[in-house]
């Protein structure tokens, strides 16, 4: 863990201790109660305000672990593991798993296959699940791609089947859904001000306790230790997919990252180095950030038009920021890159 992260965690821990009141009631509405959780391979930080903050965080943490147990592709108890080892037979799954697969199929369609949750065998071949990275042989990729096709997934209420040689993974959307579910837990505890960070995903409930918007920083993909811009939000998720989040450098000196283009099985390299999606539904934001990263500079406009209630920030590989007009007054560029509003026509 970097020194900076350590410092952040120390400060967070200090605040937690400060708020660890004996009766677990946080009576000062301006003091945050926070909690760090490591789940889904991600450092998560949850922050809630109000007198029910402590029990709300407790339940949110339980919900995160419940979702991880259902959705992880690598844990042998999960629904996804069972589906991937079902030899083509039907598998009964939880309500969460069914909802996520349903959404993945919907967005698979609306993004013309840019989001394809059957990409998992290709991701494994590159070593992204084990961190034993290598550049696959081109013929190997071709043969794996023969079984990549989300349209072969059959979802019937809470029963799923996939072809024998296919495998699925919900890494592109699980954290977006988790954010939405944490917001539901918070609401059920009458929390009206909270913010969570799940790796590159931020999601807020309401606004800050003083009524002003949350300010969320988006990283600079060219120097991820620095922020690139700040967006103001309330009641929204801000979700980023970037080529700097998980990658390795090959013997050829090139960078290979974890978002795969189902068209050829290689890391998607279609003009974007990061895509951020802002909107009320974290699940949609997460699906779209991955899919638009794949769709790239030639495909993004078509897809974006179908999602008028969402805002987008794209960073191109030639170092330009493009963003949508809906966040014009809420967007502050703090990088040296140029930033321009996307012209839809
Ligand atoms: P992260 O979760 O790392 O912030 P993303 O939301 O963009 O980033 O999801 C990336 C993950 O999605 C990968 O680790 C992999 O599990 C999965 N994935 C990669 N390419 C695709 C794709 N084309 N369609 C669906 N899932 C993908
Ligand atoms: Mg995503």
UniProtKB/TrEMBL annotation:
<comment type="similarity">
    <text>Belongs to the ApbE family.</text>
</comment>
<keyword id="KW-0479">Metal-binding</keyword>
<keyword id="KW-0472">Membrane</keyword>
<comment type="function">
    <text>Flavin transferase that catalyzes the transfer of the FMN moiety of FAD and its covalent binding to the hydroxyl group of a threonine residue in a target flavoprotein.</text>
</comment>
<dbReference type="GO" id="GO:0016740">
    <property type="term" value="F:transferase activity"/>
</dbReference>
<dbReference type="Pfam" id="PF02424">
    <property type="entry name" value="ApbE"/>
</dbReference>
<keyword id="KW-0460">Magnesium</keyword>
<keyword id="KW-0997">Cell inner membrane</keyword>
<dbReference type="GO" id="GO:0046872">
    <property type="term" value="F:metal ion binding"/>
</dbReference>
<feature type="binding site">
    <location>
        <position position="172"/>
    </location>
    <ligand>
        <name>Mg(2+)</name>
    </ligand>
</feature>
<feature type="coiled-coil region">
    <location>
        <begin position="50"/>
        <end position="77"/>
    </location>
</feature>
<keyword id="KW-0285">Flavoprotein</keyword>
<keyword id="KW-0449">Lipoprotein</keyword>
<dbReference type="InterPro" id="IPR003374">
    <property type="entry name" value="ApbE-like_sf"/>
</dbReference>
<dbReference type="GO" id="GO:0005886">
    <property type="term" value="C:plasma membrane"/>
</dbReference>
<keyword id="KW-0274">FAD</keyword>
<keyword id="KW-0175">Coiled coil</keyword>
<protein>
    <recommendedName>
        <fullName>FAD:protein FMN transferase</fullName>
        <ecNumber>2.7.1.180</ecNumber>
    </recommendedName>
</protein>
<dbReference type="InterPro" id="IPR024932">
    <property type="entry name" value="ApbE"/>
</dbReference>
<keyword id="KW-0808">Transferase</keyword>
<feature type="binding site">
    <location>
        <position position="286"/>
    </location>
    <ligand>
        <name>Mg(2+)</name>
    </ligand>
</feature>
<keyword id="KW-1003">Cell membrane</keyword>
<feature type="binding site">
    <location>
        <position position="290"/>
    </location>
    <ligand>
        <name>Mg(2+)</name>
    </ligand>
</feature>
């Amino acid at each position: 863990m970097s020194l900076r992260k350590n410092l952040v965690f120390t400060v967070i821990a200090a605040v937690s201790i400060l708020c660890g009141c004996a009766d677990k009631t946080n009576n000062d509405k301006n003091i945050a109660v926070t909690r760090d959780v490591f789940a889904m391979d991600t450092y998560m930080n949850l922050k809630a305000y109000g007198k029910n903050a402590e029990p709300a965080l407790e339940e949110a943490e339980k919900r995160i672990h419940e979702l991880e147990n259902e959705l992880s592709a690598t844990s042998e108890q999960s629904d996804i593991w069972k589906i991937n080892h079902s030899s083509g037979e039907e598998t009964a799954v939880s309500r969460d798993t069914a909802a996520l697969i349903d959404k993945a199929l919907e967005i698979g369609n609306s993004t013309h296959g840019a989001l394809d949750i059957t990409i998992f065998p290709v991701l494994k071949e590159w070593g992204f699940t084990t961190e034993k990275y290598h550049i696959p042989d081109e013929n190997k990729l071709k043969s794996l791609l023969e079984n990549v096709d989300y349209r072969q997934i059959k979802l019937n209420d809470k029963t799923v089947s996939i072809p024998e040689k296919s495998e699925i993974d919900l890494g592109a959307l699980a954290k977006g859904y988790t954010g939405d579910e944490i917001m539901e837990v918070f609401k059920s505890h009458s929390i009206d001000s909270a913010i969570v960070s799940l790796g590159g995903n931020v999601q807020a409930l309401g606004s800050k306790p003083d009524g002003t918007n949350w300010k969320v920083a988006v990283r600079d993909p060219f120097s991820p230790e620095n922020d690139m811009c700040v967006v103001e939000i309330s009641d929204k998720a801000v979700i980023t997919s970037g080529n700097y989040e998980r990658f390795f450098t090959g013997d050829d000196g090139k960078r290979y990252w974890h978002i795969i283009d189902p068209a050829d099985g290689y890391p998607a390299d279609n003009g974007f180095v990061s895509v951020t999606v802002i909107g009320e539904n974290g699940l949609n934001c997460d699906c779209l950030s991955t899919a638009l990263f794949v769709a790239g500079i030639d495909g993004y406009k078509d897809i974006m038009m179908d999602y008028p209630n969402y805002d987008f920030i794209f960073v191109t590989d030639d170092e330009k920021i493009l963003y949508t007009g809906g966040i014009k007054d809420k967007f502050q560029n703090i990088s040296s890159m140029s930033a321009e509003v996307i012209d839809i026509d």
